User: Fold this.
Amino acid sequence: GGACVAEFTEDGCEIIRANEKLRETLNTPLTLGELLKIDPLTCLSDEDAARLRDEVDEAAHRGREVSGELAFSLVKTNPSHREHLRYRGRTIAQGRFRNEVYFLVENISEQKRALKQLEDLNESMERLMNDTPGGFGRAAVGADGSLVPAFTNDRFCQLLGMTRDEVAEAFASSAFALVHPDDLSELGVTVGR
Assistant:
């Protein structure tokens, strides 16, 4: 990913050194020289800029790293530009009103888009499952191979005569918790297929 040294002062932030990979990471047609003239805090939401500034101050004070994710947008040069970035940084110099931080930056925009698509798909599936006339449940396979309930629709709860909380508690350790012991082996074979 990209790397840079940024100087935080009371007046803002200035990237004072950066590698060419930073420009690629930010996915911008700007030259590195043009990029260095931009206060990166102006490319963040007010909330992200304040949070990053607070993190840098706190990290400098405590001698810790800063890390997190934020949305970066070069709206002044391209109104549709928006990249999601993950960063890690360490204070390398500090003064009374300034902190210099070495940052490593990774572009996670594709991961964010994929995650959003997955969340939208899950939301659609849950709406579909809730609209299903019968009882419906979905289980996830746990690390130990057990099935742990991930979703049950309202009708499933009604059929069992339980609330969602009661169903969650009953199935907390296994999706097979309410299966009759005589049916467990056959159900295990069916699920195993």
Observations:
- The first strand starts at residue 2 and ends at 9.
- The first helix runs from residue 20 to 25.
- The chain has a mean pLDDT of 87.
- The CA atoms of residues 65 and 90 lie 5 Å apart.
